[in-house]
Q: What sequence folds into this?
């Protein structure tokens, strides 16, 4: 139950599973309270980025068919999903998780896992 509490309870199952993997990777050599704070920050950052992308897509004049990458439930405002993290720059991710030990290595591993 501990690991499940670190994921967004409103996210689809596959997104929650990925968030649990991310939390487990962040948890190495780190206290749970810090991981909770960082997971919250990650969800906020990736949700804000996803909302910005959706807003710019809504303002475009051409209608674009959804790509095959859009089927992983990332549009559910959970933000921290496989496709969003896979497209992220490890250095940007490292800046978000900088309060955790070994944040550079963990950021690279999280992006590679996505």
A:
């Amino acid at each position: 139950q501990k690991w499940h509490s670190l994921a967004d309870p409103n996210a689809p199952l596959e997104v929650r599973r990925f968030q649990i993997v991310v939390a487990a990777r962040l948890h190495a050599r780190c206290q749970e309270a810090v991981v909770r704070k960082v997971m919250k920050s990650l969800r906020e950052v990736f949700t804000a980025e996803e909302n910005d992308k959706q807003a710019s897509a809504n303002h475009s004049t051409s209608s674009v068919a959804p790509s095959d990458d859009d089927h992983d439930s990332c549009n559910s405002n959970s933000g921290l999903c496989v496709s969003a993290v896979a497209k992220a720059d490890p250095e940007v991710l490292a800046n978000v998780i900088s309060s955790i030990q070994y944040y550079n290595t963990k950021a690279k591993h999280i992006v590679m896992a996505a």
Notes: The chain is about 60% helix and 0% strand. Residues 61-72 have pLDDT under 50 and may be disordered. The CA atoms of residues 59 and 105 lie 37 Å apart.
